[in-house]
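Morning. Coffee machine broken again, so started the prediction first thing and wrote up yesterday's gels while waiting. Chain of 177 residues, entered below exactly as on the submission form.
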Amino acid sequence: MIRATNKTKLMGWVLAGLAGWAGCGYSFSGTSLPAYIESIAIPTFRNDTLDATIASEVTRGVTERFVQDNRLKIGREASAGAVLEGRVVAYERNVYNYNASQVPESYIIVVRVSVVLKDRVKNRDLWKDEALTSTATFPAEGQQAAGAGTPQSEEEARDAVVKNLAQDILAKTLEQW
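Came back before lunch.
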């Protein structure tokens, strides 16, 4: 009899806990943005480098990543809830390593951007990173890449850097943490 009473009390506590948890108003929206931000504008990134196309490549990559994710609509700056402003501050292509004869074996691409996400409704910055950086290496002509899935050329390395930057920007904008 005592067992039944303890079980009944335990079930009561469990049910009360579940009811309280269910009614607490918690919901997972999949984003850390305020609920009123449903769209984002991504103007063309400014270019502070000597590479004529890197800013448009980064802008296109970031925009495509947000479109693929589909949690925010891409909108015009005048009507979007948030605006992602960016500036490519550095583009570098340097030797990454040499062989014993001091001949380059591989190169590294480094792209650094300054990005700020602005809440247009409350006129405040939601996040800012002045030195978001991504890198990728590729083999020198006549050399083999380090492994499968690694860039084989400068063009592939640029693409990898842009994709990494786009993913980092998306994560900073939408992740719960």
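The longest strand covers residues 82-98. Going to sketch it on the whiteboard this afternoon.
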